[in-house]
Request: fold
Amino acid sequence: MKKVALISLVVAVAICFAATAFAGSLAPGQMTSCNNAKSITLTHGGGSSADRTNANLVVWKQANATTVPITLGPGDHNGFPGTGGGSAGYKGKNGNDKVKMGTKHIMGRKSVTLYPQPNFSRGDSIGDISGEVRITNTGTNGVSVACN
Reply:
């Protein structure tokens, strides 16, 4: 009887550890959590164009009881293109061309990794991921969550 109890305890601990190590894929509307993770990686899982290919998440952190929105948009254009197609008044050139700047164009991120902020005490940092962190998919595209 003691062997069965010990084996079931070991299996339960292994399942909990595996669930903590990789939280898995979040479909729209689902939530998962990480507890005392050294890092949390959020990766856009692809999907529909309903959110312009964005993955929208809400991250709640127990350490400082704050909620932070995160958007992963690998299909979004950020910044300014370097040449041509400018607005009225620039005669075919945009702001970068007017001041002789190079292209500042970047695409959105496909993934982001959150790290703890050990230099702050009592959860003072807005980025503190110590304790429980709940991630909710509020968009229409899937997201992969890895708790490391």
In short: Residues 13-22, 82-92 have pLDDT under 50 and may be disordered. Residues 2-21 form the longest helix (20 residues).
